[in-house]
Structures are given as structure tokens and as C-alpha cells.
Amino acid sequence: MNASLLRPAIYIAALCGLYLATAMFVPAMIDLYYGHEDWQVFALSGFMVGGISLMTALATRGASPVFTKRLGFLLVNLLWAVFSLVGAIPLYLADHELSFAQSLFESISAITTTGSTVLSGLDTMPPGILLWRSLLQWLGGIGIVALGLFVLPFLRVGGMSFFKLESSDTSDKPFARLASFTRAFMAVYVGITLACAIAYGWAGMTGFDALNHALTTVATGGFSTHDASFGYFDSIPLLWISSLFMTICSLPFSLLIIFVVRRRLNTLRDPQIVVFVGYLVTFAVALAVYHHLRNGTGLGTALAHSFHNISSILSTTGYASDDYTNWGPFAVALAFFATFMGGCTGSTAGGIKAYRFVVLFNIVGTGLKRLVYPNAVYSVRYGSSIIEPEAQRGIFLFIALYIFLWAVGSLAMALLGYDFLTSASAVLTALSNVGPGIGSIVGPAGNFSTISDPALYLLSLLMLLGRLEILTVLVLLTPVFWRQ
């Protein structure tokens, strides 16, 4: 590969490292305010990362190159690698006796908004560490939306750009310039975060809890300030508020922006939104009725817990209001299959995503019609748009690689000594960026603190693969990518 592409990629990564170093001073000030010595760790990490990033940026500064696919692939992988390593530094240096593998796993889980954690004793943990984890998830959510809306559609390996920014036709653009859209996106993202924090505070959370949970709800990340997650609060109104915001943030942000700024209600009739809300409501109601009939739980309480936990899984947030694996075998099976599905493309949610299910269903329907009328011409559509064969192949390739990586990863976890349920569930929740899995070890009542370092490295890689849509990472392993 042309070495000139490395310079701009490293330069941009160094600038992003500066931003993340600046963010470290926020938890430093929080710890200093509460009188905890960890403020020194965050301050030292901020100065160290900031100094290295500044020197690297100055050394690699130069003329801006033309943004090509090859540069895009390299830049995306480099940025997420830098974010993961930088985010792990305060966690490793803090006085919590985390190994480097655990620190890196926690950082990647935050940046990819997965929500799996190796930390326990969150209720008595220093506020700076808790806020740093939440900030990493919130900032990761911004990167994920930008990735899904702009970078992946350009690279043709995922995403679905509503704005068609590469087109010269501006008649359908809600905003004439990318800068206008970026400002609108940040305004909506910050506005939803503030609304969520206010709602949590109104429903009974403390200010610190409300801030942290708002940051991780909007990012659909799921880190909590308590070991029991939402079960700590024992509040039905909080469950409904959380379910609402998790669902909203599982929708495409591009369409949310058009809805909020332009008041265009027709955007909410997007096919993937209809499908996502459809299977969310179906799963939640079915689980609530099952929980009510099998365990005698009141229907209102069962509905609140079911909607919260199902929306948490489908939005890949990772909160838990109760250990739903104790509700019965149907609850376990439903949660396991829901882990595959995910939210909408262009949101902070992970998983296979509703967009791919819509296209896959239409491909199957078109194939069945061709069996009956082999000479007829049928096109695969997404709403009023025709899905090109290249995009169809990309969807099949993604799903095939997703299943392949899940199988290989599960076998690797089993080779490291874990039972089938823990292995399959941990790998699945990493690929889908969900957070908690199934079973006593990685289930909603447990965490990943007892997972060995080699297994944590494996799961960390899978979290990055799942978040970057798999193909974006694997393309770097092909020899043709590095040829001149």
C-alpha cells in the first residue's frame, strides 16, 4: 500500500487522541471534588496522552489527501484501536488491580457501547472511574453513528446513508451541507441525553446516577453505576423511561434528525423502523404474558420488566432490571435469539440489524417468485428503493461471516475451558455488542471478571469486529489491500 496513506491516518488518529486526552480531565475534576486520589491518575493520563498525541500530530501534519476507500478502511481501524488503547490507560493505572487485558476489555466494551464489564463493587467505586466509563460509551456512540451514516456507506460494507451525500442531486437533501447535518446531529444527540437525564432525575435518580445512566442509555451502552444495574432502583417509572429512550436511540439518527428538525412524520414509516418496533413489541408482550402466567408476577410489573429487558437486548444496551434467565426456559431462549437481531442501521445499536432482515426477507420472497415464474423480472426493494446486487451480496457476506465468527469464537472459548452456554453466549454478545449473555458467569446477574485474560483478548477482538461491521476489519488481512 502507498505509504503516504499512513501519514494522514496517523495524523487524524493523533488529533482524536488529543480530544480523548482532554476528556480525561472531566473525571479528574470529579474525583478531585469528591476528594479521591484517582484524580491524579486521570490528570497524569491526560497530560501523557495529550503530549504524545500532540507530538505525533505535529510530526505527521501535511496536506490533506483525497479520501479513498483504502484510506477509509485504514483510518477506521486505526481510530478504534487508538480509542481502545487510550481509554484503557486510566483504568489500568487506577488502584483497582486490573490486568492489562481486563483494562483493554473494559475500554473496548465502552467504546463499542457493548456494556460487558469486568468490574464489580460499582456501588462503592470512585466517581471518576464510573464517569470515565460512561463518557467513553457516550463518545463511542457519536463515533458509531458517524461510522454508520457516512463511512460505511462510502466503503460499501454496511450502513445506509439517507442523505446520499455522494450524489450531486440536492433536491432530496434535508441539509445542503455536511456541516449543517453534523450540527443538527450533535444538537439532537446532546438534546436526547439532557432529556434522558432530566427524566431519570424526575423519576428518582440522584444527579450523578441520572447523568451516568443518560450517557450510557443514549449510547445504548448499558454501563451502570451499580452492580445490580436497573434492578438497584426498584422503580417501575424508571423502567418505562429507560425502555422509551433505549428504543428511540435504536432508530436511525438520520431519520430522527429529519423528524425533529423538519417535522416530517413520514420518516418514521421507514421499513426497518416498522420491523424493529414490530419484533420489539411482539417479544416484550410474549415474554410478559409468559412471566405473568408462569411465575405469578403482576401483569403491569411483568410488562415493565419485559419491555425494559427486551428493549435493552434488542437495542444492545445491556441494562438488566432482573435476572430474566430465572423466569423460565422460554425467557432464556427468547433472550438468546434476540441477541442476534439488534436495532436499526444508523443508530448506536449493534447486532445484525433490522435493515438487513428487511432486505433478506425481500430477497427470499423474490427468489420464491422466480421459482414459479423463472422468466419474470423481479427487483429486490427496500421501501421504494431498489437494492443493487452488490448490496445484496454484501448483506449475505456479512451474515455468513457473522455466523462463521460466532461458531469459531465459541469453539475457541470452549478450548479455553468454558462450557457451551457460556462460550456461545459470550461470543454472541461480543459480536452483537449487547453486554450481558446467558448463564451464571456472563448472564445478567454476573459479569466478565472471572474470564481469563486470553478469553478477554478474544472477546475484545470480537467486539471490535462486530462494531466495525466485520468486513471493515477483515479487509486489512487481505494481501491485496497492502499492495502498491
Tell me what the structure shows.
- Mean pLDDT is 87; it is low at 161-175.
- With 484 residues, this protein is mainly α.
- It has a two-stranded antiparallel ribbon with strand order 1-2.
- The protein is built from 19 helices and 2 strands.
- Helix content is 64%, strand content 1%.
- A hairpin with a 2-residue loop joins strand 1 (381-382) and strand 2.
Concise account of the structure shown:
Keywords: Cell inner membrane, Cell membrane, Ion transport, Membrane, Metal-binding, Potassium, Potassium transport, Transmembrane, Transmembrane helix, Transport. With 484 residues, this protein is mainly α.
What key attributes describe this structure?
484 residues, globular
Question: How is the biggest beta sheet arranged?
Answer: 2 strands, antiparallel
- List low-pLDDT spans: 161-175
Number of strands: 2
Structural class: mainly alpha
Helix content estimate: 55-70%
Q: What would you report as the Rg, rounded to the nearest angstrom?
A: 22 Å
What gross morphology would you assign? globular
Beta-strand residue percentage: under 5%
Question: SSE order in H/E notation?
Answer: HHHHHHHHHHHHHHEEHHHHH
Based on the structure, what is the oligomeric state of the protein chains? single chain
Count of discrete alpha- or pi-helical segments spanning 4 or more residues: 19
Distance between the termini: 4 Å
The average pLDDT score comes to: 87
Please state how the strands of the largest beta sheet are arranged side by side.
1-2
